Amino acid sequence: MELLNNLILGFGVALTPINMAYCFIGVLVGTLVGVLPGLGPLATMAMLLPITFNMAPVTALIMLAGIYYGAQYGGSTTAILVNLPGESSSVVTCIDGYQMARQGRAGAALAISALGSFFAGTVSTMLIAGFAPPLADLALKFGPSAYFSLMVLGLVSAIVLASGSIAKAIAMVLLGILLGLVGTDVNSGVARFTFGISELSDGVGFVIVAMGVFGFTEVIVSLELNEKREVFTKKVTGLWLTKDEFKAAAPAVLRGTMLGSMLGILPGGGALLSSFAAYSFEKKISKNPSKFGKGAIEGVAAPESANNAGAQTSFIPLLTLGIPSNPVMALMMGAMMIHNIQPGPQIVINQPELFWGMIASMWVGNLMLVVFNLPLIGMWVKLLSVPYRFLFPAILLFCGIGIYTLSYNTFDIYLAVLFGFLGYLFVKLECEAAPLMLGFILGPMMEESLRRALLISRGDPAVFLTNPISLCMLIAATALLGIVIMPAVRRKREDVFVE
Amino acid sequence: MIKKITCWVASIVLIAFSVGAFAQDYPNQPIRIIVPYTAGGSSDFVARTVATRMQENMNHPVVVENRPGGNAVIGTELVAKARPDGYTLLLGGSSVLSANPALYNNLPYDALKDFAPLTNAVVSPIVVVVHPSLPVNSIKELIAYAKANPGKLNYGSAGVGNTLHLAAEMFCLTTGTSMTHVPYKGASQALGDLLGGSIQVMFDLPQTPLSNIQAGKLKALAVTGEKRIAVMPDVPTMAEAGLPEYQFGTWIGLVAPAKTPPAIVSRLHKEMVKVLNQPEVKESFAKQVMEVKASESSEAFAQFIKSEIDRLRNLVQTANIKPE
After folding, report:
1. What is the distance in angstroms between the Cα of B96 and the nearest Cα belonging to chain A?
2. Do A344 and B210 touch (CB under 8 A)?
3. β-pairing, B154-157 with B219-223?
């Protein structure tokens, strides 16, 4: 009953005209920012921060939060239409979403993205409302050894991500890990693989690699093939989901939401990891894994729901413990500081209308987003019929601008172009980019956790087995590895016997 | 032909005007304050507050630009190499202007020669927090525990060579104890593990763990500085806790590129000190446990920076801290 009272309080705050207006502005700006490749919610929120000085604290936070989860909605649009991830968390959506667009199913892909995200947003908002403190405590139990084992599990599932040869997938994961190692090492302060270039001392940015390997590569490949792109719009068989697609996607949305909500709480994880995990999970439990990578609707529904759920639940550590779990949350914390609010365990007690108002407005924002995005699907699909010779310069231009806004450094753009050529090489060699991206994210986190766990245990490796969470993860990882490798081994043996 | 001549004359006239722009009074372009960290941190907060107020007082745009990266080196280098015309300033603090020079020999800037200091803005003490499961309730007990279990305690920091790391090392040096350093990518991550119990101790700026201390999830043992912090009235100072010889504070100030004309330097100094002395500014900083401490003059600030670098260089050499 207390929950109901709190929610009423929250909605009372969220549904005032001014808060609703700023919520709308926030999600609108967020969607636009999400659609534009490169430019992310972090840069936008930083730019809009001064505007919030004269607003009431709740209003300011509602707007900023709206930008963040609005960007998750928007990022999927370009991922589906032109294989360009607008947000780093939409990288996975590119895989099946773009294939769906090529088959004329762009409308369905966009629709399920919006619907799945809305469902995920609703569920995760309820989770935050009901279980924020216990979830936060659960997140605290993830010490370095548990993190390491989670990353191992994630890396094993990266092999699942690939549709082609397993050897190539492993190679791409390793290459991704190597790329991720560039930068300053946390545990020793030494700069590795930076060749003295100070722009590389923080590592290669994920957005840069994603833009290069997905965006620029796609432009190069499309121009080479010179394929007739009318096929995209000619074969458009309706802008909505068929009944079969809906039936297939619904459970995927559910699973994606659950996975995303759980992973979003962990600091460092957030929306990014959740979309990868959801995709791998869907593929692994699917009765027909070969359809993934060729336009399976579950491959769009699950990651999209997961990344929205992850984005919302990543507010939990900030609102309950005062610990930001990613740079966007750190910015929110800064915004709170500017308004003289101290995020932490006291917020729920001292400023309940702030806490519950924010939570209620998250749901309101999600509603606004789905109402706003669904009718626009027709317009987005029309975009596909723009002749490619106009489309690709626009893509390149927006990518360039977006990358530049990351650090105001032209070096980043050169780096992205380099990755574009690299991605082209991968396409020619029939290697997939998705395992590379996953290795790139997980590798450094895994190394950091490994060394930290060993540092704390004074070099005793048993710590990975004595920690219960860590042990569970490692067992799951071994089991998954076995399941993945077994069919390949068995098939080879059968080939040998046939000989 | 006429058209060509007209074009030439027009361009020359325009160029003449643009050159003439420099001769006008300062300021006639927006002033940028570069913050070498991402938006949302305490440095960023200080910069934005000062910028907004300066803009109000001077009736002239003052904007904040975030240029994070490379352990704050990238933004700092930018200002070190910027034109000394008073339009590009740096918000630098103890990490950028005293810790980095003490630790690294090959920085692309020289903290003493490449900058014209303007004024200090705020100072912040360090608080020693421990996980509640640790059976210590005061600094003396912590020292005793650490001496009885050398190397057993883990303390977190925001990175190798970070001021929090240096603060802890100085403590170990002063008290003759040894604790194991566990670096993280930022104080918030370290705080997360401290709450979870993986690490037991942390030397941190007060505002980060404040709400958790108030909620009882962490124990604060002592604060550095001369007086107790208003938001943590039960936490004794180092002197009260029996360790007056350990002092460590962090500071945030503003500098301009070297060779900035002295007239501009003193104008900026005046404007900034005016902002810093405003009661609302003092109050909003105090809420984030930062005390306004404006320098009396730019030269005084320059002296202060030099003494800080020397002090930390001494610490780094004695404690043998080597990042690279």
Report:
1. 15
2. yes
3. unpaired
